[in-house]
Amino acid sequence: MAYKRSVYLKAKEALDNRRAEAQRLQQQRHAEAAQACPAILDAEREMAACGAELIKIACAGGNTQEQLAALSQRNLDAQQRRAELLKGAGFPADYLDNVYTCPICKDTGTHGSYYCKCYLDLIRQTAKDCVKGAAQLKKCTFETFSLRYYSDTPDPALGGRSHRKIMENVCAYLKHYADNFTPGSKSLLMIGKTGLGKTHLSLAVANRVLDRGFNVYYDSAQGIMDRLEKDHFGRGARDEELQEDLYQSDLLVIDDLGTEMVTSFTLAALYQLVNERINDGLPTICSTNLTPAELEAVYSQRLTSRLLGTCDVLQFYGRDVRQQIAGKD
Ligand SMILES: [Zn+2]
Fold it and tell me: Are 188 and 93 contained in the same domain?
C-alpha cells in the first residue's frame, strides 16, 4: 500500500517550495520591519543570546533548573518586546512568525518524530492530482452522487424493486467496497447503458481508495489501449511507468470498455492485462455499456468468461441521467 514514487517526489517538491516561499516572505518582512523599527534587531540579538546561553547551561550540567527558568523568562521577555515593537510600528505582533502554510511544522513536514498532517494531506492531494481526469475525479464522489434521477416506481420485471432501490444498493455496496478496499479485494464489472452513473461511481470508489493511501490508475479503455499500443510498437521493452500504472497499481479502473477501437492487438493486450492482474491478485474495476453477450461478441469468450468468472457484477438501471439533467427527457 503505497503511492507511486513520482507522487512522493512531487509532494516533497511542493513542500520544499512551500518552505522556501515562507522563508522568502519572512526575510522580506524582516527587512521591512527592521527598517521601520531598528530596535527589533536588539530584541532579536537578545533572543539569540538566550539560545547560546541555553547550550552553555546544558553542557555545564549540574542542577540547572533555576538558571533555565530565568533564561526562559529572559527569552520570553525579548519575544514580548519584539512583538510590542512590531505593533508600535504598525505591524501585527506575529508579523514575522505568521509566514507558514502550516504553523505546526513550519512547513518542514515533520512534527516531532512523526510526519505532520499537512504533509500527509499534501501527498494524498498530489496522488489525486496525478490521476488522469483529476478534475472529474474531484467532482465525482459518493457525496455528489444523487439517487433522485432514478425512478422509485416498483418494476415488476425486477421483482417489484425500483431502479432507485437497486441503485441505492449498488451505491451502498461500492461505499463498503471502497471503505474496506485492499489490494486483495475482488474485481468489479459495472454493466449498464450510457448515463447511469458508472463513471461517477467508479471515480467515487477511486477517490475514497486514494484517500486511504492506495495507488489507483484510472483511464478510459481507449486511453489504456492507446498507451499499451504506443508502448508495444515503440521501444520494445515494457515502459516502467506503464508497468507501474497498469500492471502494479493497487486498483485499476478501466472506464467505458467496448467503446475503444478493437483490433487483434488490443484484444490480446486487454486479455493479458486483465489476466495478469487477476493472477497477481490485484483488483480491476471495468465499466461497460455492453451486455455480457455483446462483450463476448466484441472481445472474446475467453476474456468475457475471465471477467464474469472473477468479478462481482453490478447491473446499473435507470434512464440516462445526463439527458435528464440536460432537460431532454
Ligand atoms: Zn505541518
Answer: no
pLDDT at residue 172 in the model: 97
- Closest to 314 (Cα-Cα) out of 135, 140, 192, 134: 192
Distance 111 CA to ligand 1 centre (A): 7
125, part of any domain: no
Using pLDDT thresholds of 50, 70 and 90, give the confidence band for residue 121: very high
Quote the domain boundaries for residue 303: 131-325
Query: Does any domain span residue 123?
Result: no
The 10 Å Cβ neighbour count of residue 109 is 20
Q: Per-residue pLDDT for 319 more than 60?
A: yes
Q: Do 150 and 162 meet the contact criterion of CB atoms below 8 Å apart?
A: yes
One-letter amino acid of 184: G
| CB atoms inside a 10 Å sphere around CB 155 | 14
Q: What is the pLDDT of residues 44-95, one digit of tens each?
A: 999 999 988 888 887 877 777 888 888 889 999 999 999 999 999 999 998 9
The verdict on 95 and 146 lying in the same domain is no
Task: Establish if 188 belongs to a structural domain.
Answer: yes
Report the separation in Å between the CA atom of 16 and the middle of ligand 1, taken as the mean of its atom positions. Answer: 12
Helix/strand/coil for 289:
coil
Band (pLDDT 50/70/90 cuts) for residue 328 is low
Q: State the distance between the two ends of the chain, measured CA to CA, in whole angstroms.
A: 44
One domain, residues 311 and 165: yes
Gap from CA of 14 to ligand 1 centroid (Å): 13
Which residues fall inside 5 Å of ion ligand 1, going by CB? 102, 104-105, 116, 118
Nearest to 120 by CA among 249, 3, 248, 251: 3
Tell how far the Cα of 318 is from the centroid of ligand 1, in angstroms. Answer: 46
Q: Which pTM does this prediction carry?
A: 0.81
Query: What gap in Å lies between CA 7 and CA 225, rounded to an integer?
Result: 24
